[in-house]
Amino acid sequence: MTNLAIKLPGLELKNPIMPASGCFGFGKEYAKLYDLSQLGAIMIKATTVEMRLGNPTPRVAETASGMLNAIGLQNPGLEGVMGSELTWLEQFDVPIIANVAGTTTEDYVEVAKQISTSPNVHALEINISCPNVKQGGITFGTDPDVARELTQAVKAVSSVPVYIKLSPNVTNIVSIAKAVEEGGADGITMINTLLGMRLDPKTGRPVIANITGGLSGPAIKPVALRMVYEVSRQTDLPIIGMGGVADVDDAIDFLSAGASAVAVGTANFVNPFVCPEIIEKLPERLHELGFGSAEELIGRSHRL
Amino acid sequence: MTNLAIKLPGLELKNPIMPASGCFGFGKEYAKLYDLSQLGAIMIKATTVEMRLGNPTPRVAETASGMLNAIGLQNPGLEGVMGSELTWLEQFDVPIIANVAGTTTEDYVEVAKQISTSPNVHALEINISCPNVKQGGITFGTDPDVARELTQAVKAVSSVPVYIKLSPNVTNIVSIAKAVEEGGADGITMINTLLGMRLDPKTGRPVIANITGGLSGPAIKPVALRMVYEVSRQTDLPIIGMGGVADVDDAIDFLSAGASAVAVGTANFVNPFVCPEIIEKLPERLHELGFGSAEELIGRSHRL
Amino acid sequence: MIRQQHMTVVSQQEIAHRIFELTVEGDLVNDMMAPGQFVHIRVADSYEPLLRRPISVASYDKEKRQFTMIYRAEGRGTNLLAEKRPGDGLDVLGPLGNGFPVEEAAKKAYLIGGGIGVPPLYELSKALNGRGIETVHILGFESKSAVFYEAKFKELGDTHIATVDGSHGTEGFVTHILNELPKDFDAYFSCGPTAMLEAVQWAYPEKKGFLSYEQRMGCGIGACFACVCRTTKSETDYIKVCSDGPVFRAGVVIS
Amino acid sequence: MIRQQHMTVVSQQEIAHRIFELTVEGDLVNDMMAPGQFVHIRVADSYEPLLRRPISVASYDKEKRQFTMIYRAEGRGTNLLAEKRPGDGLDVLGPLGNGFPVEEAAKKAYLIGGGIGVPPLYELSKALNGRGIETVHILGFESKSAVFYEAKFKELGDTHIATVDGSHGTEGFVTHILNELPKDFDAYFSCGPTAMLEAVQWAYPEKKGFLSYEQRMGCGIGACFACVCRTTKSETDYIKVCSDGPVFRAGVVIS
Ligand SMILES: Cc1cc2nc3c(=O)[nH]c(=O)nc-3n(C[C@H](O)[C@H](O)[C@H](O)COP(=O)(O)OP(=O)(O)OC[C@H]3O[C@@H](n4cnc5c(N)ncnc54)[C@H](O)[C@@H]3O)c2cc1C
Ligand SMILES: Cc1cc2nc3c(=O)[nH]c(=O)nc-3n(C[C@H](O)[C@H](O)[C@H](O)COP(=O)(O)OP(=O)(O)OC[C@H]3O[C@@H](n4cnc5c(N)ncnc54)[C@H](O)[C@@H]3O)c2cc1C
Ligand SMILES: Cc1cc2nc3c(=O)[nH]c(=O)nc-3n(C[C@H](O)[C@H](O)[C@H](O)COP(=O)(O)O)c2cc1C
Ligand SMILES: Cc1cc2nc3c(=O)[nH]c(=O)nc-3n(C[C@H](O)[C@H](O)[C@H](O)COP(=O)(O)O)c2cc1C
Ligand code: FES
Ligand code: FES
After folding, report:
1. Which chains are within 8 Å of D by 3+ CB pairs?
2. D225 reaches B (C-beta below 8 A)
3. pTM of the complete model
């Protein structure tokens, strides 16, 4: 029997596959398609203190093997998420990773403190890297000192382990990773989207109302993989890797690069069954490759 | 008549389309396919003081809508390039932009000084952004101060205008652009490749012998376009834009974003006739869009 | 229930300039519930193009397990879709969204469509006629070459055509026709460009109306928040076109 | 002259397990000059997969303007290629590279191939036989199910087959057969995995040999420096497999 289980701070995962934040809402829609208890975990949509309506539309645009989005952290706010979304999710046997966003340190602290007390929230993912909010968000993820301090502040109040979600839009991602490690982070999730833009060749106007958006999907996989590889070699933190995962071999690649678990974002829109499909194929693929467990594969590329 | 001509420091371009450095060698191979005098300009392969053999193979790997390369600046060296390649190119009525690379400031200065005296070299493109050389290269492009000083040093010795080629692997590309503007650069070319990686899912090994490589092709176009847009709004330097250009609408997009001319890299491998094809289609497309010249389109997205 | 199904192309035909009628077969049709629903189509087994394309159901036949779409081959995705031939497979996610509430019409309904907003009105008209409701069709197109289904709509009721260039029917927009028609209907149903929907709402502020909206989509099922619109209900209220719509009562959506 | 041409698929057949024989037609064939040349194929009109795929010419017929390739459907690109049907178009860049120098063989030649390195040896054998040269074929495959063209080679000369699993012919590698054969030939030609080329060179240090190499390619025409190998000539000498090769004299390339 191939063992898919992975143990991470706060998380006992049945398998290393989970939907990425913002690409799965709070699970309700996908629950109509399959049993969410199959998933390793669920990363829910970013939660902010107050409800947010996000950016004007169009909010998405297609690009070659990728897409841009500028949703802008639309969410029902801390009360809405804790009151209705998380409670609803309790019916499933699946750990929730709550994605926390804000524009000030106080915002992050407030959300982290409260949401970490929800019984099914087993870990926090601190989104210091969303490119689609005008203030705050992006700078937290690009300056090591700011990232360290935010990590410390969140760690001080969280009742569950804290994962920091890194932005790829930086010169040196290892320096940010090391800073959050120093700040006491329990793990890292990476990568968030690359900042990009699409124009309408007819009008010359940006297709996304917000002008720029975050690039995700298979197009960014090489960048994501390189960053996971670098960070996993140079820090001791466990990594939940993501960026362009769309099939079982992509998941294998992220584990090989050094991730301990893998999140699937954009691919859910292309194939809503992608997560259970990868989970189903993983044991056979591991067996073919000569591995008895998913765990053995982690960081395989470093050992070669 | 639609006017395609563009005037840039040192360059009187018949049209705004040129092959990007490293994707066209020194023109010999493509000269067998079409008349190089059709091109707006030619950006030749990076030249270093001494001949270089580059990295071990495999040097290329395909990715979703893109490719990775780690050629590693293989070139015949200053003497070889000036002696045989540039002389051979004199038969064509096309300005050459010489791509200059090195590992120390002295290297860059040496190549810039000499190669800028070649009669058909009308401008230099200083490659401070190649991700595939182990020392030097990459850091020049990621630190504003270093970039400024290198620009000054090269400007001091060059007999022709100097364009600096920016790396996209930075937190803040505008700060690098401003630094090279202060350093006296005549223009900017952007973007070079994004640092990426591919693994073989069977073995877990990196496909590229050099482990990481530079990501190019349609996958990176959204990132390139966003950066051209940002830099063109915040500096006064003319930009030669590139990154994923593969058809006439891509070229339109880069001009709209603020580039004054457009370079085509990876697409030459997919369609070796891509440059003359874009040049041929440009007048009709401009006419359809209601523009009388390519120049009018430049920066169109800023004015909307 | 929403399914993702590998359906089979039964027929594909160009019925007007770059307008294609595509019929596919599969069990997914069993779950179709109302005219105005749509499907989300993956046009190629490639990452480029990556996203699915939303296309309305123009008509369906549960007995034959077939449904028909009508679409304009315009961009990358729809042009690839136009290459499908009978026997080819097609990856369809659906049925999605809520359709037109046929039970809201009492005696006579106006069906107002523009361009590629016309197709869902066909199944709607059949359904209304099936309930004994008189339907009047007011359809706008770019020009004569883009007109389709005129005869089919005529079989179901009075049909008025407007073309922007005047090459067929009335010159101008559907609103030019609406101005000339009596207001003796009890409900209207409309699908087309947002500007048209706005104009139609303005024309009949006192009538019961149902409008089908378009938005750029990601998931198509309500999870990604790509396709939202604010509503007139409150400052903080919003709907998702894909899962709450695409059909909404007139006066609700701020577009 | 190198051309980029939209050729037409004449036939496609699976001739062994996941091994396809594909014949296409077009003027580009007129420029083919020697067995061992290759073409660079764009398998889909999409950016994914992006790059062309290098495939050897297995045989060509200038009168019919047709040439044949034999390839293994393995990864993304070759699997898409395997979906092409007669009548479909195919974007081919070629002919590329320099082929085998048939004039270098005097009386008797050994043709040593492994797996998907076997195909170019077929046209080569025909050309050598056409010049009155005796050919002996030593061909290695994974297993019986992967063997192709055995009968065709037999028509041209002695043919020995090795399979790794022993399911057909000699068990093991081509070198196991070479050890048993006389060395009464004047030239050998080989194409296959690099390890096999190395072994063959070691087996016949004193003979005249020509080897066809593989490398990952970008442009396929000599411009991008993706496909280089160092040579035995000097520390700084190198060749490009695509334009200087793919065929080189034994002892030249450091692989
Ligand atoms: C609910 C709904 C029902 C629709 N029904 C029909 C129909 O029955 N017939 C028909 O011809 N068209 C219909 N459309 C519009 C259709 O989805 C677009 O024409 C199509 O997505 C364009 O894709 P493309 O590949 O041709 O264009 P591209 O420009 O390549 O598309 C790029 C991206 O933009 C999106 N996009 C472009 N135009 C639109 C648009 N108008 N609406 C939403 N997304 C868009 C695409 O889906 C894709 O993600 C409908 C749209 C919606 C939202
Ligand atoms: C000169 C030459 C002649 C060849 N002739 C034949 C032939 O006649 N029949 C045949 O079956 N194969 C031949 N090959 C190998 C063939 O090119 C690869 O099998 C093919 O490119 C694999 O593509 P894929 O899409 O199936 O695999 P993928 O794994 O999707 O390919 C990914 C990338 O790697 C490259 N690649 C993968 N394997 C190889 C390889 N072995 N050599 C070069 N590039 C590779 C691909 O071209 C592509 O760019 C030849 C290779 C060369 C260099
Ligand atoms: C529509 C959309 C919404 C997203 N929203 C969030 C979010 O709320 N919080 C967050 O941390 N990341 C968000 N992301 C980023 C993803 O979680 C993920 O990091 C990124 O998309 C890369 O993975 P992918 O290529 O698999 O999509 C969003 C991505 C998309 C496409
Ligand atoms: C094979 C290859 C070699 C390259 N060599 C160089 C080089 O020598 N100097 C340089 O400045 N850029 C080099 N580049 C980068 C390109 O000039 C260009 O900036 C980049 O590829 C993005 O454009 P594209 O997406 O159109 O390829 C190379 C790119 C490729 C793919
Ligand atoms: S398209 Fe994703 S919520 Fe509507
Ligand atoms: S593949 Fe480009 S030089 Fe050989």
Report:
1. A, B, C
2. yes
3. 0.97
